[in-house]
Amino acid sequence: MGWLRNLAVVLVVSGVSCQDDDDELSQEKKLCQDKSAGELFRLKAGKDACRDVIQCTAAGLQAIRCPPGLAFDLEKQTCDWKWAVKNCDKLTKEKKVKPLLVTDEPLCEDNKLACGDAICIQKELFCDGKKDCNDGSDENSCDIDTDPNRAPPCDKEICKLPDCFCSEDGTSVPGDLCPENDKCVRVPQMVMVTFDDAINNNNIDLYKEIFNKQRRNPNGCDIKATFFVSHKYTNYSAVEDMHRLGHEIAAHSITHNDNETFWTDATVEDWAKEMAGSRLIIDKFANINDNSVVGLRAPYLRVGGNHQFTMMEEQSFLYDSSITAPLKNPPLWPYTMYFRMPHRCHGNLQNCPTRSHAVWE
Which of these, 298, 192, 328, lies nearest to 247 by C-alpha position? Predict the structure, then answer.
């Protein structure tokens, strides 16, 4: 009967092993049930554990550790300098209540939508930068795919040059030079040369070396550049000289605020003070009063969403040069913001515009 005793021991041990596996799976399921795809989170809070996060994957939990000197920022979902990370005391990034935009049965009358608590408010109040729902859910689902007031898809029957240009994926070449992206020999190569920040004694000699009248375009004209000028440390006599030589001068802010979230969250008024104010300073001190300062670039390429582009319309800026796009072949062409952006919002925590705006990108 000894074999029965051994079998019983095996069954008991196996049962404990299975129970442990079930407990581990149950614990893992609890950890992952409220996490979005790819979301990284902590098991332990505190400065000593701020480098370590985990992620739910198809193969189970995956541990990730930031390099020495860095910590993990839950909101940015990336490693950053320790001094810049302010959420080491949290386990997960903030969970935001979503509005009830899609339901089996309509919850609201026409031109109204439901907040996360099922209270209906006017559709135009969603994603306007102000929390109108009691739970703030009207501002929590506002990307290019979910904003209820988002720009419509490209309509080539309406959008025509010279005032408008768009395409579904952004790769269509203007002027039918390359129909269906085939036989594109007529499309010229174009190289954009731009510089950011101050023009002063530290770089003016370099610019003179680059633009030495020896580098020319195929038509025989000297190459030119666009200078996105910020106020700090700028020599406006040098700015005036660059403009006189035929280079374009554009705005890049007055303060160049070092806090990147300032630009992400800035109001329409903040953007106007920085960019329209920069243009006024250029007008006064660089004597550029021919209304040629019509473009801007956000510091750190931190896009300010609909607030930035609303300001640009109000202040008569014609184009922005801040939005980054994924590398593509064939590449993207400039487009107007009347219609939906032809690419995803690229970059960590970027705040791309979702509404229709009379601005080129």
Answer: 192
Q: What is the pLDDT of residues 200-249, one digit of tens each?
A: 999 999 999 999 999 999 889 999 999 999 999 999 999 999 999 999 99
- d(Cα 250, Cα 128) in Å, to the nearest integer? 28
Say if residues 251 and 291 touch (Cβ distance below 8 Å).
no
Paired sense of beta strands 226-229 and 194-196, if any: parallel
Q: What is the dihedral of CA 307, 308, 309, 315, to 10 degrees?
A: 110
Amino acid at 2: G
Q: What is the DSSP string of 172-236?
A: PPGGGSSGGG---TTSPP----EEES--STTTHHHHHHHSSS--B-TTSPBP--EEEE-STT--H
Closest by alpha carbon to 296, among 284, 286, 304? 304
- Tens of pLDDT, residue by residue over 177-205, are 887 777 788 888 889 999 999 999 999 99
Amino acid occupying residue 265: D
d(CA 271, CA 297): 11
Give dist(CA 333, CA 342) in Å, integer: 10
Query: What length does the chain have?
Result: 361
pTM: 0.78
The answer to whether 249 and 295 have CB atoms below 8 angstroms apart is no
For residue 321, what are its two tokens? 């040069």
Indicate the Cα dihedral angle 271, 276, 282, 287, nearest 10°: 180
